[in-house]
Amino acid sequence: MNPSEVSRRTFVGTLGVGAALTALNRPARAAKDPNDQVVMGMIGVGSQGTSRLKEFMQHPEVRIGAICDVDKRHLDRAIALVEKEKGYKPQAFGDFRRLLDVKEIDAVTVVTPDHWHAIPTVSAFEAGKDVFVEKPLSYSVAEGRAMADASLNHKRVSQMGNHIHNTTGNYRRVVELVQSGKLGKITRVHLWKTSPTRNTRTNEPDTLPEGFDYNFWLGPAPKHPYEPLRSHGHFRQFWDYSGGTFIDFWCHISDVAFWALDLKAPTHVSAAGGRFFLTDATEVPDTLEAILEFPNLLYIYSFRPTPLPGFEHMGHIGCLFEGTEASLVANYETNEVWVRGKKVDDFPRPPQSIADSPGHLREFLDAVKSRNLETTCNVRYGHHLSKCGLLANIAFRTGHRIQWDDEHERIVGDKDASQYLTRRFRKPWNLKTQRRPAQAEHAQVT
């Protein structure tokens, strides 16, 4: 198939079903009493996965039923942690498909490298499990579309690990102020994330550690000899597995802009940058300027070695809304209003209109029990958010200004760029997809 013709419809029609995944279909579990226990399966328990494990164990109704990791070091450590903290021993697996066959499991976490998000997530939906999956949602646009569609087709609860959305009330207060109109007309948003300027180092051994199934870790990605820098901890710095620190933090800070301005999709995307500081064996850029052209809005994301000039005090990450009456700058924890170059501490704020969050994991667990599919960061919203960062990386890798057709999720008239919308999975891995549901692409956050 011509890469320029790849869209969500042709993707759905042409991807086959991996034979190893076909046995995973299982009817959806019935709705539970709100006081019932939630049995969790943890897929991926490296550093971030272990953090999520600890967070879920803090909720009294959660029972860790099973843990899966391709590295026995991670697996043994996580099992021991649950034994110590909870006094019981979860089942242990090296293959996520065996975990999904455990009938008692209600929901799973997918805290794996980006190239391993889609297959376990879609498989879990098919197996009747709800899913908490890390950001960015997917490795490619097509994989994100498959995850979004499967969540509705199988009526499964989901949450993307974009926890800043719900950790504090800061983003809610920013959204309220932007939507109040007090800043005037906003035609430009400038976001930033500081980039690495020192070469990457790893503590992983030079030779493949015993108990680390590296071939399974590669999974659908191209075959490559083991190199410690390419696996645990630094996988995002290689195109085979992710799109760099740029895409890692894209969702965290873009979330507040997309939410506040109710952004739909850009018409064009361009990007420029390079490796101006790093000389190690990693691949992704250490400097990148992405420009997304929305109707009546210019959206700039700067991946740069220092914070945006003038806002160094806001730290490593931030978002600046430039309005005709005032500008608002926000990071994760706080926000400020500036008028004609001066910070205005007593700028009039609208009354609170967005309810406080119960917490990112708490919202997910409550939704698992109530069968609420519209969590604030469900995979439909996660796909809507993530794909724009993925398009920026495509623009950088090709050097092309991309024209984007969001209705069909395709790049217009550019074969070179279109090939990056999906990937050819290494055998025997594949991804089962279904026809796109007729429901809305993502829920409006309120």
Report on the architecture of this protein.
- The chain has helices at residues 8-14, 47-57, 72-86, 96-100, 118-126, 141-153, 164-167, 170-180, 214-218, 244-261, 360-370, 379-398, 415-418, and strands spanning 38-43, 62-68, 91-93, 107-110, 130-133, 158-160, 186-194, 268-274, 287-294, 297-304, 317-323, 327-330, 335-339, 342-343, 402-405, 410-411.
- The protein is α/β, with parallel strands linked by helices and 446 residues long.
- Mean pLDDT is 91; it is low at 1-32 and 440-446.
Keywords:
alpha/beta; single chain; 30% helix; 16 strands; ten-stranded mixed sheet; 446 residues
Silhouette: globular
Ends apart, CA distance between termini: 41 Å
From the alpha-carbon coordinates, what is the Rg to the nearest angstrom? 21 Å
Number of strands: 16
Level of helix content?
25-40%
Question: What order do the SSEs take from the amino end to the carboxyl end, as H and E?
Answer: HEHEHEHEHEHEHHEHHEEEEEEEHHEEH
- Overall pLDDT confidence: 91
Strand order of the largest sheet: 14-13-12-11-7-10-9-8-15-16
Largest pleated sheet? 10 strands, mixed
- Main structural class: alpha/beta
What is the helix tally?
A: 13
Work out the strand percent.
15-25%
Are there runs of 5+ residues with pLDDT below 50, and where?
Answer: 1-32, 440-446
Secondary-structure blueprint of this entry?
Blueprint: H1 8-14, E1 38-43, H2 47-57, E2 62-68, H3 72-86, E3 91-93, H4 96-100, E4 107-110, H5 118-126, E5 130-133, H6 141-153, E6 158-160, H7 164-167, H8 170-180, E7 186-194, H9 214-218, H10 244-261, E8 268-274, E9 287-294, E10 297-304, E11 317-323, E12 327-330, E13 335-339, E14 342-343, H11 360-370, H12 379-398, E15 402-405, E16 410-411, H13 415-418
Parallel strand pairs: 1-2, 1-4, 2-3, 4-5, 5-6, 7-10
Antiparallel strand pairs: 7-11, 8-9, 8-15, 9-10, 11-12, 12-13, 13-14, 15-16
Helix pairs in contact: 5-6, 6-12, 8-10, 10-12
